[in-house]
Specification:
- With about 500 residues, the protein is an alpha+beta fold.
- The chain has 2 domains: about 250 residues, Adenovirus Type 2 Hexon, domain 4, CATH 2.70.9.10; about 190 residues, Adenovirus Type 2 Hexon, domain 4.
- The strands form 6 sheets. Strands 15, 18, 21, 22, 24 and 25 form a 6-stranded antiparallel sheet that branches. Strands 1, 3, 8, 9 and 14 form a 5-stranded antiparallel sheet that branches.
- The longest helix is centred in the middle third of the chain and has 12 residues.
- InterPro entries: Capsid_N, MCP_C, MCP_C_sf, VP_dsDNA_II.
């Protein structure tokens, strides 16, 4: 090479000099290289080809504040637009920094273990799995049309059933503040808040979040300021628990009560809790979305199109004994009418004792309460036999454990979902995947019924129970001229 050419800007250096055009790999190749990047490959992932479709995306994380007061028992509203949240919306979560009913100095001493309760059974805490429990109702709304409605129970079921063990661990401990009953009974008094930092993250598993990065909701296809999320929070009295396991009433709270603490040295001290509900130190809605560009953005913005989505149809039977068709020794047979519409992909249900309200154990779907639990009497499932009927014909019937194993096996939840006493049956070959793989069209049926043989619990408290049923069905949304409507509303 003539180095004098480098000093001459007029010299044409548009192509490499010399005859050598082969790229030599100086590193030794191993079996992994041959598997991932074979020498005989005819296609490269390192260069762009004209045949491959490239969609440009830019991730966007945004925080939104509520246009209404953020308090226990109130409805909070968040307006979401594509200008801030992104063209495609993939995930939403409500993040709350909790306050406390005890003075801040007492809270700090409890967390540093320099102060402890004289009687630990009198200690009050936030409810187990507060991140899901606090959500009484959440609605995804466009204009005045409710696209989907979920609640805290479905959020808890979704997190236990649809996620693998690694993700469940993070959600339970860092987001919801959820532990099992033995850990709850032995909870240390230093754990003042459900999570280590005092923040809870309430995951809102709307349809676009249940299949991450594959089913984003096109905010850009809706007119600005027409998309909102309305969340109703549970009252404070339904979000606290006492260490003894039983409150004096369903309205009992730690507000205004006096607690006796023992410091590391010196006499015991008495502290009276605040008489007002603790305010949230901070609360916001966090969204994860994507900005698009090119032909995709133009199509989402201007072209009419329809999009498939999975809709949650929830049914709560708070008085299931109205549907009793037979009784026997230690058994109650129910026949519940499931008024579901559209292509039904899977049906999920749980059975919960009404006595959970005595200490706000809303995520306990077993037969034993916290106050009744022991190593000799662990919880068990209350469903002994179940039958799913369509038009009077039994599609599937089996023992209760089959429905626990079936739904847990079909999803990533595995043993966690099984031990949570979640029942269900899926008509899809691969439920939870982006592309539907099976369903039953309930719009062409006259009735769908869930027949169950339930073994009532033998606890010392209220033996009544309720049944929560969630049907995941297919529906479509049509977008045109900034307007979005569900194709099938009922």
């Amino acid at each position: 090479m003539n180095f004098s050419q480098l000093n001459n800007p007029q010299t044409n250096l548009t192509r490499p000099l010399g005859d050598q055009t082969t790229v030599i790999d100086l590193a030794d190749r191993d079996e992994m290289d041959d598997a991932l990047f074979p020498l005989t490959a005819t296609q490269s992932w390192f260069t762009r080809t004209k045949q491959r479709r490239i969609l440009p995306f830019t991730p966007v994380l945004q925080e939104f504040t509520s246009i209404s007061a953020l308090e226990f028992g109130k409805k909070i509203v968040f307006n979401i637009g594509s200008v801030n949240a992104g063209d495609l919306l993939f995930s939403v979560a409500l993040q709350i920094q909790l306050g406390h009913w005890l003075p801040n100095d007492i809270v700090d001493k409890l967390q540093t273990n320099t102060l402890r309760y004289v009687d630990p059974t009198t200690a009050w805490y936030y409810a187990n799995s507060l991140g899901s429990v606090i959500i009484q109702r959440a609605e995804f709304i466009i204009e005045d049309q409710v696209i989907e409605t979920i609640d805290g129970d479905f959020s808890n079921i979704y997190s236990s059933l649809f996620h693998d063990l690694n993700m469940q661990f993070g959600i339970a401990y860092d987001a919801y503040g959820k532990v099992d009953i033995p850990s709850l009974i032995n909870q240390p008094t230093t754990k003042v808040f459900p999570t280590s930092n005092g923040f809870i993250t309430c995951i809102l598993p709307f349809t676009f979040q249940r299949i991450r990065l594959q089913n984003g909701f096109p905010l850009i296809s809706c007119r600005e300021k027409t998309v909102r999320i309305e969340i109703t929070l549970r009252p404070f009295s339904e979000c606290v628990r006492i260490a003894s396991g039983l409150r004096t009433s369903c309205d009992d709270t730690p507000l205004g009560k006096t607690f006796v603490f023992q410091p590391l040295s010196g006499p015991n001290i008495s502290v009276t809790a605040s008489s007002t509900i603790p305010a949230f130190a901070d609360a916001r809605l966090v969204t994860y979305g994507m900005m698009t560009d090119g032909k995709l953005r133009t199509a989402l913005l201007k072209a009419p199109f329809e999009r498939l989505f999975r809709e949650i149809q929830a049914f709560q039977f708070s008085e299931p004994k109205k549907y009793v068709i037979n009784t026997g020794p230690g058994m109650v047979r129910l026949q519940l009418p499931i008024e579901v519409n559209g292509p039904l992909e899977e049906i999920i249900w749980v059975i919960r004792r009404k006595a959970v309200s005595l200490n706000n154990e809303w995520t306990n779907y077993g037969s034993v309460l916290e106050s009744e639990w022991s190593q000799d009497t662990p919880g068990k499932g209350m469903l002994t036999y179940g039958t799913l009927q369509v038009n009077g014909i039994s599609l599937i019937e089996s023992y209760g454990d089959y429905f626990r194993r079936s739904i847990a096996k079909d999803h990533k939840g595995g043993i966690v979902a099984y031990n949570s006493f979640i029942y269900g049956y899926s008509f899809a070959e691969e439920p939870g995947k982006h592309n539907p793989s099976g369903w039953i069209n309930t719009s062409r049926t006259s009735d769908v019924r869930l027949r169950m043989d339930i073994s009532p619990p033998n606890g010392s408290e209220d033996l009544e129970f309720e049944v929560l049923v969630y049907c995941i069905s297919l529906n479509w949304i049509r977008f045109e001229n900034g307007i979005a409507n569900k194709l099938f509303n009922s």
